[in-house]
Amino acid sequence: MKERRAGAVHLPVLPTLVVTLAVATMIALGFWQLERRAEKEALLASYAAADRASQEVAWPSAPLGYQAALYSRSAVRCVEVTNRRAVAGRSEDGQPGWAHIATCNVAVGGLADIALGWSPGPRGPAWSGGEVAGMVAPAGRGIRLVANPPIAGLAPLATPDPSAIPNNHLSYAVQWFAFAATAVVIYVLALRRRRGS
């Protein structure tokens, strides 16, 4: 029988396979985050271009058109107000207060949320509809039209700003690469401890 060579390293197969797969997955996720970073930069650039453009876009009547309309100028005609609510919001000069939102049946079909304007208190105006122009802004998974000029005697709301959208994908990528390196270091230390026992 051949003697084992002195200093030869014999890796346990299953643990090594598990660690290798885990590290490969973490590295792949890191590179995926770098790709997402580039995509997010392109998206933010398109938002900034829309923000600077003066041309209005048609109000999107279906969710497929929401992304392309964000941060563009648009207009709708509210034919019937179906709901009114006040939510926390900031004025154009940064004062905290209330944003008054009306949900409307619109002339192009479907519903639209319209941010009518700002006030220091939650009591909103008795607005019954009409033409509204403003900027298309994100609202959860949907969109809303932030009226500019504001409606029904309200003050202007803060203008939606695409530059405030975070792009954290680089830090996420660094985290995944750090996790992968940490896993390798821990496994190497565990192997050394196993050999010394």
Keywords:
elongated, 197 residues, 2 domains, 3 helices, 37% helix, alpha+beta, OB fold (Dihydrolipoamide Acetyltransferase, E2P)
Describe the structure.
It is a single chain. This protein has a 5-stranded mixed barrel. The chain is 37% helix and 27% strand. 20% of the residues are buried. Helix 1 runs antiparallel to helix 3 (169-196). It has 3 helices and 5 strands. The protein has 2 domains: 14-38 and 167-196; 55-164, OB fold (Dihydrolipoamide Acetyltransferase, E2P) (Beta Barrel). It is elongated and about 80 Å long. It is α+β, with helices and mostly antiparallel strands.
The tally of strands reads 5
**What is the N-to-C order of secondary-structure elements (H for helix, E for strand)?**
HHEEEEEH
Low-confidence stretches: none
Note the gap between the termini.
25 Å
Secondary structure category: alpha+beta
The CATH class label of the largest domain is Mainly Beta
CATH architecture of the largest domain: Beta Barrel
Side-by-side strand order of the widest sheet: 1-2-3-5-4
What is the number of domains?
A: 2
CA gyration radius, whole angstroms: 27 Å
Q: How confident is the prediction overall: mean pLDDT?
A: 85
Give the overall shape: elongated
Number of helices: 3
Largest beta-sheet characterization: 5 strands, mixed, barrel
